Automatic annotation (TrEMBL):
<dbReference type="GO" id="GO:0000209">
    <property type="term" value="P:protein polyubiquitination"/>
</dbReference>
<dbReference type="Pfam" id="PF19318">
    <property type="entry name" value="DUF5918"/>
</dbReference>
<dbReference type="GO" id="GO:0034450">
    <property type="term" value="F:ubiquitin-ubiquitin ligase activity"/>
</dbReference>
<dbReference type="GO" id="GO:0005634">
    <property type="term" value="C:nucleus"/>
</dbReference>
<dbReference type="GO" id="GO:0031625">
    <property type="term" value="F:ubiquitin protein ligase binding"/>
</dbReference>
<protein>
    <recommendedName>
        <fullName>RING finger protein 37 N-terminal domain-containing protein</fullName>
    </recommendedName>
</protein>
<dbReference type="InterPro" id="IPR045696">
    <property type="entry name" value="Ubox5_N"/>
</dbReference>
<feature type="domain" description="RING finger protein 37 N-terminal">
    <location>
        <begin position="1"/>
        <end position="211"/>
    </location>
</feature>
<dbReference type="InterPro" id="IPR039847">
    <property type="entry name" value="Ubox5"/>
</dbReference>
Amino acid sequence: VSTDGYECSNIISNSWHLRRKGFLAEYFIKPPVNITFQFPCNIDIHHVFITPCVGQQRSSHLELYSASKWPQSAAKYFQKRKPVMSGVSTTSTALPEGEISNAQSSSHPMPPLFYSISKIYVPDSERICFYNPKVSTLFNKDTDNFAVSNHRAEIRNFRQDIISASSHLTLRIVRTVSGSAAAVSNVDIWGLPALSVPTPIKDDIMNKYTSFINQSSVKNHCEIL
C-alpha cells in the first residue's frame, strides 16, 4: 500500500515527473517491503542504482533478490510432482531452495524462486550502486553513475544464471531511519539481454534502444539551441 501520488508504478513510469516522485509506502506499512520487477526477457544484470529516500523519508537497509525462470524441461518435471500440502512435499524429492517462494499445487505453474544477490546498509540518503564485478570494468568509473555512488555493494550468487539470466528482481526494504516510511525515489536497472534470449528479440530491443537514444539526442540538441 503506497501513499497517494507515490505509487510503485512511478519507478518505471515514462513520465519524468512521476519517476522523480518515486515510491513511498503508507506509514502503517512496516518493513520489510518488497518491490518486484519482472523483465520482458531474461537479462544479464550489470548494475542497479537506487536512491533510498523520498524527501525526509529514508530507507537504510536494502537487499536484492533475483530469480531465473527454469528451462521448460525442468518446469515440466516439477509440474508432474504430487501436490504440496502446507509447504511440505508428499514426495522425497525436494524443491530447490529459494529465499522467497510460495508452495503451490502441481496444477499451477511453479512460481519463480528468488535468491539473495546483495545487501547493503546506508546511514544517509546517498545513491546506492549494486554492481556485478564481472562487468563493472565496462564502465568509466570517473565519469559514469558508478562514480557518483558513495555506497556500493557487489552482486553475487553461487548460481550464475540468477544474475546472468534474471527474469525477476526484487528490492527488499528491510529497515528505515527513525521510523520513516519505506521510500525509494529512483531505481535504475542496467544490463543486457541474456545469451539465451532469441536473436529477433535482442534485435528488437536494440532497435528500441537506438530509437530512444536518437530521440533523446535530438531533444537535448533542440534545448541547447
